[in-house]
Amino acid sequence: MLIGFNSNKWFEKSFEDEYHLRMTNIDITKIEENVEQVLGYPKNILSNQFLIKNQYLCGHTLNLETLIYPHLIILVKSNSENFKERQSIRMTWAQKSRLSSKNVRLAFVLGTNPHNTSVIDESNKYEDIIQIDKIDYYYYSSYKMIMMLRWINDYCTSKSRRTSHIDLVNYVLFVDDDYYIDLDLLLLYIYNIDHDTEMTTYERRTFITGELIEKSRPRRNLNDHYYVSLIDYPYDIYPDYISSQCFLMTRYNARLFYIGSKYTRLFHFDNIYMGLLAYSMSIKLIKNNELFSTTLSSINIFNYQNQFLSRWKTIFNNKINFNSTKKPICIRGYRNEKLVQLWNELHQTNLTFSF
Fold it and tell me: Residue 251's closest CA among 291, 205, 185?
């Protein structure tokens, strides 16, 4: 017996040669209206529902054509028991008054937990919770992703053809609850996109960016946390995909991905599933691995704390070189006390973590 030999590789199919033969090819230029006429009846409609909708987060009016949507919606993926994580975010980079002044809205998207009954009280108090009727579990991450895309489609995109263009310049950031987000740098990045005169309408419709993962392989070891069987995924590589831990897209594109999800077989892991959706719709994933880094962690940063804080203080002093690729918008590994500590260092405040 050869140690480390994986016989599964003998039976894998070629993704590049064979996947397209089974997928539904979605021409996004033909699905603006009458989707079912073009693609037929949807094959993958989730039966899940919203337990807490928060449907007016984007605004509410009787006249949909005069509804002023927030420029940016931030959807934070969180487990129902992660109240401390949510509270530290509310105290720091997502302070409600700060978001409102910048025309930004934020919601935490939760699943269910039979041992946590306080979510409704939390929602009533902070008015920033969306909850779906699926247990929080990493194997169900694609369910939560599809439900977030559904929520954007149903409650945060234009329902009028005459105003659908506003979704080309309105955005949604998806992020996990253990991240620090530099909101000022994010809005500066969006400002530059909005004022890019060379960007086409098609590019705005399909805009999605983040940390691009290329040519990764399925994990076939039964003991691996992210094990995938040949039955679930028989191919040798995954499509290129954007890390789902922190990425940005136009709300127009979020609607396209939601439509695509109705015709694409569900896959366990949300980042891979989003890659499959992009592949089926021939949507270009924009590589932005340093600005939307999901591999940097607090361990690396605290090893170089002095250099890190010096660099960030320079950023907050408005000495930003936008052409530099060394200033990440999102940094992984900051939660609870550690997030509050970072915020105090960067903004010279004296917040005390409480919950």
Answer: 205
Region 268-277: what's the mean pLDDT? 96
d(CA 191, CA 187): 6
Write the pLDDT tens digit of every residue in 211-223: 999 999 999 999 9
Find all residues with CB under 8 Å of 136, minimum gap 6, and list them. 79, 80, 81, 110, 111, 112, 113
Query: Mapped to the 3 state alphabet, what secondary structure does 224-285 carry?
Result: CCCECCCCCCCECCCCCEEEEEEEEEEHHHHHHHHHHHCCCCCCCCHHHHHHHHHHHCCCCC
Identify the three-state secondary structure at position 110: strand
Query: Mind listing the pLDDT tens digit for each residue in 276-315?
Result: 999 999 999 999 998 998 765 443 433 334 444 444 444 4
Rounded Cα gap, residues 322 and 187, in angstroms: 12
Q: Which domains does the chain have, with CATH numbers?
A: 25-347 (3.90.550)
Decide: 355 and 81 in contact? Cβ < 8 Å. Answer: no
End-to-end alpha carbon distance in the chain: 55
Return the structure tokens found at 349. Answer: 């405040």
Are 38 and 27 a contacting pair, CB within 8 Å? yes
Classified as helix, coil or strand, 309 is: helix
Could you give the C-alpha distances from 143 to 11, 26, 100, 209, in angstroms and in order? Answer: 29, 21, 29, 21
CA distance 91 to 336: 10
Q: Residue 130's beta-bridge partner residues?
A: 109
* 58-104 pLDDT, tens digit each: 876 545 555 567 999 999 999 999 999 999 999 999 999 999 999 99
d(CA 155, CA 344): 35
Strands (E), the chain: 50-52, 72-77, 104-112, 129-135, 171-176, 179-181, 208-213, 241-250, 286-287, 330-332
State how far the Cα of 159 lies from the Cα of 313, in Å rounded to an integer.
42
Q: What is the pLDDT of residues 151-206, one digit of tens each?
A: 999 999 886 665 677 899 999 999 999 999 999 999 999 999 999 999 999 999 99
